[in-house]
Amino acid sequence: MSAETPSLPPLAWEDAVIEEIVPLTPHIKSFFFRAPLAPHKAGQHVDLKLTAPDGYTAERSYSIASAPGAPLIELAIERLDDGEVSSFFHEVAEPGDTIALRGPIGGHFVWEKTLGGPLLLVAGGSGIAPLIAMLRHRAQASPEVPALLLYSGRTIEEMAYLPELLEMEKSDANFQLVLAITRGERLRPDDLQMRFDQMAVTDSLTAWGFQPRITYVCGSNGFVGAMANALVGHGVAPEGIRTERFGGAP
Known about the structure:
Strand order of the largest sheet: 4-3-6-1-2-5
CATH topology of the largest domain: Rossmann fold
């Protein structure tokens, strides 16, 4: 008989204080929390809980955007239509407020130095959050790892962390950035004004010149499914593709 693996106790809710709020796009703000949480890995997330005076609670999960070892936990929160939690953060929350957090959570959608590369990252919209954590960690811990980010957004103005990513590409010879703008004007002459399709994925990976050892795809359900299919169609091994999808309650 094999022994049963004991289940881990649930993570405790901890009081986290908002230290700073930074607008990233017209609909996304970064909230920086000081929280007594265990060290996180790039790609993990936390749960967040709001409690109303009448006892009603609402919980959501948000990817951690800050690199491992950063003094504050950064969460990029997108304002969603009719979103009770996202509306609170965009309209009510202020520095000094205390919010309940628990985490870090997740062990599959993470990148560490020991995993190496080449590293391929694919982001749709606010799916950039866990991937910026990976890129920040790579820049600090293993900048020699070749990395390519395929980043899709409606317009340049709605693409979070874009100035940081452009500066990263400028200063890091081992990092490349491909932008696909689906509804607006391009920023650079070689940016795509279309959705990533099979041909665009193939062209981007061929120009990069590496076969990814590990790939991370994050975005909406439709985006992740389409991109995973395009990557496999190009020849990326399915077992090397890790995905994270967002959606559900706002």
